[in-house]
Amino acid sequence: MLTVDSLGPRHSSSECGRFFIGQAIDAYAALQYLSQLPFVDPDRIAVLGNSMGGSSALFAVERGAIEKMFDRKFRAAIAYYPWCRSHSAMMSTPTLILIGDADDWNPAAACREMVAQPHDDEARVDLYVYPGAHHGFNFRELQPGIRVLGHWLEYNEPAASDAWKKVRTAENLVNPTMDMPGAH
User: Fold this and answer.
1) Which H or E run includes 112?
2) What CATH number is attached to the domain comprising 52?
3) Which of 26, 50, 88, 173 sits at 20 to 30 Å (Cα–Cα) from 19?
C-alpha cells in the first residue's frame, strides 16, 4: 500500500468543497511509480480514497475524464464516502463505493443516483450503503463521534468491518468469475 499526500507538497491544508484534479493526477503518478517496482504486479494496482480522496478515485477512473491522459490504468477503484454528484457511472475499471446512509457530508442518495445512471456493463460499479453509518465510519479515532464543519463524523464498527472485508476481497472487482453481490 502506498499513501499519497496531495495536499502537503502543495502547502494546502484542505481542498474540501473544490474541484481538485491534483489528487487524481497524483494517483496516476503513484501508479507509474508502483508499476516500476520489481515486487509489484503492475496489472493489479487499485486506487482507494476516503471522502475527497474517494471522489478523486472516482474521477481518476471515470471514463473519458483524466484516465484518457494516461496509458497505464488502474485495475480497480475503491471510494469510501465520496462526493458522487457530478460523476457519471461510466467507469474505466470496476469500482466499489462504500458509504453510510447517515452521511450528511456526502449523501448516499447522490451515489445511488449516480449508479442508477445508464452505463455499459464493461466496468461495473458496486455500491454498498451502510445503515446508520456516518461520514468517516471506518476510522476508529472517531469514537465518540465529532462535529467538523457542521457535519457529523463517527466510527461504526459493523460498517467498517464489512467495508474492510469488501476491500480485502476486492479481487472480486477484477475477476468476473467470482461472485460479488450488486448494489445494496
Assistant:
1) helix 108-116
2) 3.40.50.1820
3) 173
C-alpha separations of 65 from 62, 69, 90, 148, 173 in Å = 6, 8, 10, 31, 21
Contact predicate 145/129, CB 8 Å = no
Quote the number of domains for the chain.
1
For 142, the grid coordinates are 472517531
pTM value is 0.85
Cα 95 to Cα 9, 79, 163, 170: the distances in Å are 28, 8, 14, 9
| Per-residue pLDDT tens digits of the chain, which is 184 residues long | 566 665 556 556 665 555 567 778 888 989 999 999 999 999 989 999 999 889 989 999 998 888 888 989 999 999 999 999 988 889 999 999 999 999 999 999 999 999 998 877 678 899 999 999 999 999 999 999 999 999 999 999 999 999 999 998 865 555 544 333 333 3
Dihedral sign for Cα atoms in the order 9, 1, 159, 76: positive
Helices 21-35 and 52-61, axial angle in degrees (round to 10): 70
Residue 32 lies in a domain: no
